Amino acid sequence: MWSKRDEVDYALQRRNTLQALRRPQRRLSTVDACDADPMLVRSAYHHGEESPRPCPICGKEPLLNLNYVFGDQLGQYSGRIKSTPELVEMQDEYGEFKVFVVEVCVECGWNHLIRSYLLGDGVKRRPPRRQQTVEDIYG
Asked: I want to staple 55 with a disulfide (CB 3.0 to 4.6 A). Which of 25, 68, 105, 135 is the partner?
């Protein structure tokens, strides 16, 4: 992705959380660390991209990464999950939007924000016109 900028890596927070799980005084329990919302687990199961890393808690399954996009220029499409190929296309269509990458284990519920960055070509655009969705029709 040629327009990636302002990247923040949350590896230190992730490592700190994992160390807190392994400390003898156990300030953090596995239940607290593996607290993924059922909708997040379902989204990862259906839309997640496989990560090369195994789950740090259960070690059974490889982690699945989800790319959430947010931005004023995305309009009603802000907050959606996008695949990496879709992000490559979007960086030419929008001026600026933020991507948050979350890793999720569908087996035990581990989830953690691992990275965030900005994409876009820098040209300010108006958000697309709102289109009617199924939720608008059926409530």
From this structure: 105
Task: Look up residue 95 and give its two tokens.
Answer: 């001026």
Task: Tell me the two tokens of residue 115.
Answer: 């990275």
Predicted TM-score (pTM) of the model is 0.85
CA angle 74, 85, 13 (to 5 degrees): 75
As to burial, measured by CB atoms within 10 angstroms (0-12 exposed, 13-18 middle, 19+ buried), residue 67 is: buried
Residues 6+ apart with CB under 8 A from 122: 3, 95, 96
Please classify residue 107 by burial: count the beta carbons closer than 10 Å to its beta carbon, then call 0-12 exposed, 13-18 middle and 19+ buried: middle
Q: Which two tokens stand for residue 17?
A: 């959380």
SS3 130: coil
| 95-135 residue pLDDT tens | 899 999 999 999 999 999 999 999 998 888 787 777 777 77
Measure the CA angle with vertex 29, ends 37 and 11; round to 5°. Answer: 70
